[in-house]
Design goal:
Porin; mainly beta; single chain
């Protein structure tokens, strides 16, 4: 009898300790839209997935101001149920230790800190997903096998540093530096990336060297929010020839009750190397509307168009299969977070 009481007490204490020290959260997003898409002269009606996901994250209080945490996130296509990408936890997977010194994470970070400091910060209408996502951000670097550091807040300023280990696949590492400032309604960001790979979608290979410098600003004025970024990319191919391109984006949001009205315009200059144009300049315009049914669920609609300006393209195009043509989509959808 005494032994039974003792074992029951131990089990109760163990369960209470676990509940007090750690927590695990299941979260996710289902985001899909019905769209009329036009690629040059070809039009289709599509059910479009917009980066749907499910994830698990947790923290454990280790005492003395120290915490352990983790996050694993899986991407899937809500329209077909298929996995997004080649890796099951390909969106994000890391373990971390944090305290007064900041936070150190090890694993796969998803997009780099540079992306979150610039392009993602002003993509307000649909979380920079789907056909209306930023057509011109080049996502330099490899975020797998990464050591990442997030600093404490110093009077509104935070710093991020990331190193992606080469692991004998390439002699160069991905190195990311980013800084963010929040002071009331004003939000500022800056980023630098040097990476061993050029943008494959635009005709470059993993042997190319890619560097990026970015600046971002966002300002809130009551119901109005405006944001902008400027990014300069430089890509050096294996033969030592430099290709350069500059891009920028301006976005605005006006909120009225449960409604959000969005405008977004971006442009990319010519990608030039050795005096020749590899990819012509292009522009993108998006107008969107969101209606918040609740804190977790939105109805949305948008029209987006990417205009590839010319036919002088040897390395690739933005969103279209035929150089010099336009891509557009008229969409209506629903987004639910849990």
């Amino acid at each position: 009898m005494k032994r039974s009481l003792f074992l029951g007490a131990v089990a109760t204490l163990a369960g209470t300790s676990a509940l007090a020290q750690s927590s695990v959260t299941i979260y996710g997003r289902l985001n899909t839209s019905v769209e009329r898409q036009k690629d040059g002269d070809t039009s289709i009606t599509a059910l479009q997935n917009n980066a749907s996901r499910i994830g698990f994250k947790g923290t454990e209080d280790l005492g003395g101001g120290l915490k352990a945490s983790f996050l694993i996130e899986h991407g899937f296509n809500v329209d077909t149920g298929a996995q997004s990408g080649s890796a099951f936890w390909g969106r994000e997977s890391w373990v971390a230790l944090e305290g007064g010194f900041g936070r150190v994470r090890l694993g796969n970070m998803g997009p780099t800190a540079a992306y979150f400091a610039t392009a993602d910060y002003i993509s307000m209408h649909n979380h920079d997903t789907g056909t209306s996502s930023d057509a011109f951000y080049l996502y330099p670097g490899d975020v797998r096998n990464t050591i990442a550091y997030n600093s404490p807040n110093f009077g509104g300023v935070t710093f991020d540093a990331q190193v992606g280990l080469a692991e004998n696949t390439n002699p160069r590492k991905t190195i990311v530096l980013a800084a963010n400032y929040v002071g009331g309604p004003l939000h500022l960001g800056a980023s630098y990336v040097t990476a061993p790979n050029g943008p494959v979608a635009l005709g470059f290979t993993s042997d190319d060297k890619n560097s990026e410098f970015g600046l971002r600003a966002l300002y809130e004025m009551g119901p109005f929010t405006v944001g902008a970024y400027f990014i300069s990319n430089k890509i050096e191919d294996a033969s030592g020839v430099d290709a350069k391109r500059k891009s920028w984006r301006l976005s605005g949001m006006y909120t009225m009750g449960a409604s959000e009205f969005h405008l977004n315009y971006g442009a990319a200059g010519e990608l030039e190397a050795g005096g020749a144009t590899i990819i012509d300049k292009a522009s993108q315009f998006t107008a969107g509307y969101n209606y918040n049914l609740s804190k977790r669920t939105k109805l949305f609609a948008f029209y987006t168009q990417v205009d590839n300006k010319g036919d002088n393209v040897s390395g690739g195009t933005y969103y279209v299969s035929t150089p010099g043509t336009k891509f557009s989509s008229l969409a209506a959808g629903v987004r639910h977070n849990f």
